[in-house]
Amino acid sequence: MNRCASLLAVALFLGSHAAAWSQDKGPPAAKKPPTGVYAVQRDSLKKKDVLPLKDGEVLVVHRHRYLKGGDKEPPRFVVVRSTPQVALDLAGKPQPIKDKTEVVGILLKLQPKAAKALEQLTRDHNEKQVAIILDGEVITIHKVRSVIKGGEVKITSCTPGTAGYLLKRLAASTKSK
Question: What predicted TM-score, i.e. pTM, was given to this entire model?
Answer without folding.
Answer: 0.77
